[in-house]
Amino acid sequence: MFLKSKKIAVFASVAILFFSACQYEKLQPFGIGCNSEVSYVNDIVPVINANCMGCHYAGNGTIGNFATYAGLKTDADNGTLNSRVLVLKDMPQGGSMSDENRQKINCWIKQGALNN
Ligand code: HEC
User: Fold this and answer.
1) What DSSP string describes 34-49?
2) Whose CA is nearest to atom 38 of ligand 1?
3) CA angle 20-25-27, nearest 5°?
4) 69 CA to centre of ligand 1 in angstroms
5) Where exactly are the structural domains of the chain?
6) Are 91 and 84 in contact (CB under 8 A)?
7) 64 in contact with ligand 1, CB cutoff 6 A
8) Taking Cα atoms as reference points, which of 79, 82, 54 lies closest to residue 67?
9) What is the per-residue pLDDT across 14-31, written as a single tens digit (0 to 9) for each?
10) Residue 74 burial by CB count (10 A; 0-12/13-18/19+): exposed, middle or buried?
11) What is the pLDDT of residues 36-94, one digit of tens each?
12) Ligand 1 mean position, distance from CA 109 (Å)
């Protein structure tokens, strides 16, 4: 009896672990550790256009201009893109962004913020 319930407990733990791993994968479209390559053109530009371009366009004061690769790359390299979008999460200002899109930006930065 004791042995049987122990087996059930082990089976249940494995099942729960497996299920949570699948849920985690869903939140991580580029895999745990960013296994797939993120494309600036195909993955990042659409996220920036939908979430940031209301403010981060050329000539809007001194804030980063994300209409160009060079503008976004500057903030990727100086660490502000990471801190504002992934640590503080206060960008997009006054708005919200999905975990999936934040993860795309995270992986893009980790992979060197390439112009690919
Ligand atoms: C409603 C306007 C608005 C939106 C939308 C917005 N920002 Fe900002 N952002 C600002 C303003 C204003 C500042 C400068 C003041 C400050 O640092 O808080 C700023 C500053 C920043 C900075 C600090 C460095 C710099 O360039 O000034 C980063 C990085 C940044 N934003 C990233 C983003 C990203 C990425 C998005 C989209 C996911 C986004 N922002 C969306 C208004 C906005």
Assistant:
1) T-SPPPIIIIIHHHHH
2) 92
3) 100
4) 16
5) 2-110
6) yes
7) yes
8) 54
9) 555 555 554 554 555 555
10) middle
11) 899 999 999 999 999 999 999 999 999 999 999 999 999 999 999 999 999 999 999 99
12) 17
